[in-house]
Amino acid sequence: MKNTFAIIAFSLVGILSMSSLEALAFKNSKIPVSPKVIYGNDDRSDYYQITSEALKDLAPATLAIVYNENISKIKSDDYIIKAKSLKESHDLCSDEIYADQMTASDCTAFLIAPDIAITAGHCMNTVQDCAKKKFVQNYFLSSADSMKNGHVVNEIAITQCVDILAREKNPGTGVDYAVVRLQKVLAVKKYFEMRKTDTIADFSELTVIGYPSGLPLKYTQKSRVRANDKEHFFQMDADTFGGNSGSPVINEDTGLVEGILVRGERDYEYDGVQKCYRTKKCAMGTCRGEDVVRATSVPLENLETTIKTLGLSHNISTLPRTE
Question: What is the DSSP-derived secondary structure letter of residue 170?
Fold first, then answer.
């Protein structure tokens, strides 16, 4: 049965999509190869390793959902984010990649308008969650050791949600999304554009942007559709993890968001010899795959209709994009 929270109008006026040249740059960008799990090689990369400007421009629109206890005020307008390392929080083996990076976030969200974000439904269960979590921009590594003593963020890059505009989490259909309105607008160069019609082609190549296991922002390219027969979700091979829930899954040919990452294979396996956990690894096409709720299963058109019907669009913040 559909579990949809109150639908409140929002404005998608002026959403900036990728130009054809940007989409081409997005597809052809090259980044170093270094779970909910790793399929084939580990293809995750940090922000500072990205050379494509089209990809880097999407970082401020990819928000980390962080519990309040991981954020502290240090100045009148600055906050610091601190949390356990991946090794500490997951009892990870010390030689595992990213073992020393901190794990501050719970889920991922992405902006489709100045104060409207989408995430997984299980990341924002009720409006009460808005008081427990912050939505944070720029939680990424600008260099290999830029977060050794925590991560300082200006208050203009931190907000929280004030409404859940629409939400559904349906185990029967696999649908799992939440559309939230943020307390203030966040300035970015680009917002994410969702696919509105039709379905993704079989074997399409995809990029995922988000915060795996709560780590600073990671890009995973060259993921691939592996099963495309379900009405409301498809499956892919992608190096994604628990904190990637809510991540935008982007078509590398078009730049459109094809869906929202919501669930997948178990992330880590116990190493009985070393007495610690290791990243689970699967050959391409094996294990269960990662589930992506289709963008077309999020009722954006219904919400836009509600704006016109109720005449509430004047209540929604808009902000010109910064270039």
Answer: E
Q: How many domains does the chain have?
A: 1
pLDDT tens per residue across span 1-38: 334 333 333 344 333 344 443 454 444 443 333 335 66
Q: What is the CATH number of the domain that holds 239?
A: 2.40.10.120
**Domain of 131, in residue numbers:** 20-303
Sequence-distant (6+) residues with CB within 8 A of 273 are none
Question: What DSSP assignment string belongs to 38-58?
Answer: EESS--EEEGGG---HHHHTT
In a domain, residue 285? The reply is yes
Decide if 46 contacts 218 (C-beta within 8 A).
Answer: yes
Which pLDDT score, from 0 to 100, does residue 305 have? Answer: 63
Q: 91 Cβ partners below 8 Å, 6+ apart?
A: 276, 277
- Give the three-state DSSP class for 26: helix
pLDDT band at residue 307 using 50, 70 and 90 as cut-offs: very low
pLDDT 10s digits, 228-252: 999 999 999 988 888 999 999 999 9
In a domain, 219, yes or no: yes
177 contact partners, CB below 8 Å, separation of at least 6: 118, 119, 120, 121, 166, 167, 168, 169, 260, 262, 293, 297, 298
